[in-house]
Amino acid sequence: MLASYALIIRRSAAVTAAAAAVMVLISALTGGGKGALGALLGTALVAIFFAISVVAVARAAKISPQAMMITALSTYLIKILLLLFFVVRFANTTAFSARLFGLSALVAILVWSGSQVVWSLRLKTPYVEPYGEG
Fold first, then answer.
1. CA 101 to centroid of chain Cα atoms
2. With contact defined as beta carbons under 8 Å apart, do 75 and 53 qualify?
3. Which of 122, 84, 110 is nearest to 15 (CA)?
4. 43 or 86, which is more confident?
5. Which phi and psi angles does 126 have, rounded to 5°?
6. DSSP string spanning 87-124?
7. pTM reported for the whole predicted model
8. Is 35 helix (H, G, I), strand (E, B) or coil?
């Protein structure tokens, strides 16, 4: 299971990186330097969040499926709270475009999550190994 999970992570990261590059380009064209900086910061924040989750869940998977689920849910809750903190903290900043920051973060989150679902369905790896015949 961990080998197929690593493949899903690598493919999702590649798709998300491509989407992030497109968002930075669009943000640079629409918002200039501040737009590009906002897009870079938004996608970097999402990349850091998901990297932490991947490492935490992978370590918990070595312990038990229950630990893996608790870790996944805990990191999800922490990421949502931290994202809320960053959005509130930088809502009125003039250093970068807060709108393009949020939009780029949202696009990166949706692309990452969607690509994980798509790659998981394409692998068709069973979650339960058959115990034995008859």
1. 15
2. yes
3. 110
4. 43
5. -70, 140
6. HHHTTT-SSS-HHHHHHHHHHHHHHHHHHHHHHHHHHT
7. 0.79
8. helix
